[in-house]
Amino acid sequence: MKRSWALTGGFKGTYFLAAVVLGLITLAINFATSLLGLIPILGQIAAPLIQLLFMSLSTILPAVAYHDLRTQKEGTPTAELAKVFE
Fold first, then answer.
1. What residue numbers bound the domain in which 78 lies?
2. 23 part of a folded domain
3. Which of the four, 11, 41, 50, 70, has the lowest number of CB atoms within 10 Å?
4. Percentage, residues of the chain above pLDDT 90
5. How high is the pLDDT of residue 5?
6. How many alpha carbons fall within 13 Å on the CB side of residue 86?
């Protein structure tokens, strides 16, 4: 937690705002897909596809934030971060 606190230093407000906006987008998508679910066949096909497309943002945002913060604060190149997955 200490490292995370230090890594996000100076950007806490930005990432908090990004999380709030992402939460609002998620609420809007959930509302839209619930309305779309009222359409008999199209809604049952389209709603899960839309949710799959937009809900992936909730996993992409933290990953991109981590990469950008790590690169900016510690100068860690992308190739070094990718070694974790080898």
1. 13-85
2. yes
3. 41
4. 7
5. 84
6. 5
User: Please, are residues 36 and 47 in contact by the beta-carbon 8 Å criterion?
Assistant: yes
Q: Cβ atoms within 10 A of the Cβ of 47, count?
A: 20
Tell me the two tokens of residue 41: 């066949």
DSSP H stretches of helix in 1-86: 2-7, 12-36, 42-55, 57-69, 78-82
CA distance 62 to 11: 13
Half-sphere exposure of 15 (CA within 13 A, CB side): 17
- Tokens encoding 15: 């990432």
Q: Give the length of the chain.
A: 86
* Residue 75 phi, psi dihedral angles, 5° rounding: 70, 25
Domain tally for the chain? Answer: 1
